[in-house]
Amino acid sequence: MMQSFESSRVESWLAWFFKGLLICVCLFILARLFELQVIKGAYYRDLSESNRIRRVPITAPRGIIFARGGEVLVGNKEVTMTVKFDPEEGFDKLPVYNETPDGEKFQEWNRTYLLGQDFAHVSGYLGEVNEDEVGKVDPECLHKGPRTIGSFIGRGGLEQYYDCLLRGTDGEEIVEVNTFGIKERQIGRKPPEAGQDIHTTIDYKLQKKLAELMKDKKGAALVTDTKGEVLALVSSPSFDPNKSISEYLTDDSLPLFDRAIGGTYQPGSIFKIVTSAAALENQIIDRDYRYIDTGFISADNGNFLYRNWYYTQYGGTEGSIDLAKAIARSTDTFFYEVGAKTGVDELEEWSKNFGLGGLTNIDLPNEKAGLVPSPAWKKAVIGERWFLGNTYHYAIGQGDLALTPAEVHRIAMAIASNGKLCDLHINSDKDGNCKNIGITQAHLDYIREGMVAVCADGGTAFTFFDFQPQAACKTGTAQTGGEDETHAWFTVFTPAEKPELVITVLIEKGGEGSKDASPIARELLDFWNRERNP
C-alpha cells in the first residue's frame, strides 16, 4: 500500500525536526565541553588540585621583648605540633604524641609573659583577629601579608604598639592527600621568619618590685630617668596576659584599664610646681616675696572661705612664708593668692609649657590627654563664666583640672632635668625628643629648693626626712568630690642635685600623699639603693 503525499510530508518534517534537535544537543554538548575544558579549565583544575593539596600555615614566632639588662620580659615557648587531615574539614593542628613520626612534626610557638600581671599593661597581650581584621594588611608591613582566620594580633601595650615589628612572616607546608584525607607526601615547606626583637628601657627588678608594692592597691606608678626612659610602669589592679582575657571583662575593678596613661585625676598639690613657675616667670613673686598665712582667705565679701589644709586639720597657721616654704608645707592659701595674682591665662599657658593637656608620646597605645580648663572651655562646655574661685582651685591642682599620672610625672621630670620636657619611651631605640620649657635656671633652683624642703624635716613628706642621698619631692592630696575620698599623690627625684630617678605614685581614692603614696616611693628607692650597693 503506497503512502499518501500528506503522510510522506509529515515524515519528512519529523525527520528534519529530530535531526535539528540532535544537532542542537551536539552543539550544546560541544559548547559545554569547550567551557569546561577551555574557558573554565584552569578553575576546575585548581579546584581538583585543592581537593588533594593542603596548604598548612606555620605560625611565625613573634619577636622577643627584653629588659634593659637582657632579661626576657615576653618570649615564646616552642610547641611541637602535627596535622590531622580531613577530606571535608581540611585539617587540624594537634599536639604530637610519642608515636608521631618525625616527618609529621613541625614547630610552633606560644607567647609567654614572664612577669605575668607585674608587666601586663606594658607588655599587652595577644588576641585572635576578629572578622573585621581578617584579610586586612597593616600598611606599615605590607610584605607580611593579610591577616588570616585564626591568627593573632597584639592587643594593648607593646604587643599592639609594635605589632608590625614583633609580628613574623608565617611559613607553610604544602601536602598532597588522597580522597580519604590521608597524607600521601609532602610537596614542600616554607619555614617561618621570626619577628624583630625589642630591647626596652625597663629595669627588670625595679619593675617587679614596683608591681609588688602596688599590689592590692588601685592606682598607678612610674619610674623614669630625667630623659624620659621608662624604667618601670605599673597600673593596678592588673591582669595576667597568660590567661584568657575574657575572665577580666566583667571585673568592676577594671584590671584591663591602664590608669598610668589613660586615667585622669585631679593632681592636687603637685600642680603647685606649675603655679610656682608661672608666678616666678611672670615676675609676680621673687625670692623676697613673703605671704602671711592666717589659715584661710575669703572671697565675695566673706561669703566664701578658702582654707589651708593645716588650718582645717589642726587649726594651725604658717605665719610669714616664702615660696620655698610654701612648697615645703604645701600651703594652699599661699597658692590661692599667688595663683589669683598670676591669672588663669598664665596658669593655662604654663600648664601647656609643662606638657599638660597633651600626650607624653609614650610608645603605648590608647594614651589619653588630660584636661587643662580655661574660661573659654568652661563657657563652651559648662555654659558658665569663670569665677575667682575657679582660679583658686586651679592654682592648687583641683577643680576641673584632670591629668594622667604620666602627665603629672613629667612636671617633676621637667624640674629634675633643668627645664627640659622629654617624651616618655620604652623602646630603647626610640628617641626621647626633649625640648626646653622656657624657665630660667634661677627659678628652677628656687622651686627645687622648695621640693628639697618637702623631703626634709618640717616638710610634708615625713617618710623621706632621713633618706640619703638627698631627694626633692612633692606630696599631693586631691579631693575627688566624694565624702572623705582623696587621691594620694607623691612625686620625687633623687639625688636632688644630679637626679637619676624620677618616681610618681598615685593611689586612687587612697588617702594622703604623705601617708599613703610616699611610703611606696621610699621603699622602692631603698630597694634601688640596696641593689646598687649590696
Let me know the largest β-sheet.
Answer: 5 strands, mixed
- Assigned CATH architecture of the largest domain: 3-Layer(aba) Sandwich
CATH class of the largest domain: Alpha Beta
Rg from Cα: 35 Å
Stretches where pLDDT is under 50 for at least 5 consecutive residues are: none
CATH topology of the largest domain: Beta-lactamase
- Approximate shape: elongated
Provide the helix percentage: 25-40%
How big a fraction of the residues is strand? 15-25%
| Number of alpha- plus pi-helical segments | 17
- N→C terminal distance: 131 Å
Going by CATH, the homologous superfamily of the largest domain would be: DD-peptidase/beta-lactamase superfamily
Q: Kindly name the structural category.
A: alpha+beta
Number of domains: 2
* E-strand count: 21
Kindly report the average pLDDT value. 89
Describe this entry's structure for a reader.
This protein has 534 residues and is of the alpha+beta class. Helix content is 34%, strand content 22%. It has helices at residues 5-39, 41-52, 120-123, 157-161, 163-166, 204-214, 259-262, 272-281, 309-314, 323-329, 332-342, 344-353, 375-381, 388-395, 405-416, 441-454, 513-532; strands at residues 53-58, 65-66, 72-86, 90-95, 106-113, 125-128, 152-155, 171-177, 183-190, 198-199, 219-224, 230-236, 291-293, 296-299, 304-307, 319-321, 420-422, 434-436, 472-479, 486-494, 501-507. Strands 2, 3, 4, 5 and 10 form a 5-stranded mixed β-sheet that branches. The chain has a 5-stranded antiparallel β-sheet with strand order 12-11-21-20-19, sandwiched between helices. The longest helix is centred in the N-terminal third of the chain and has 35 residues, at 5-39.
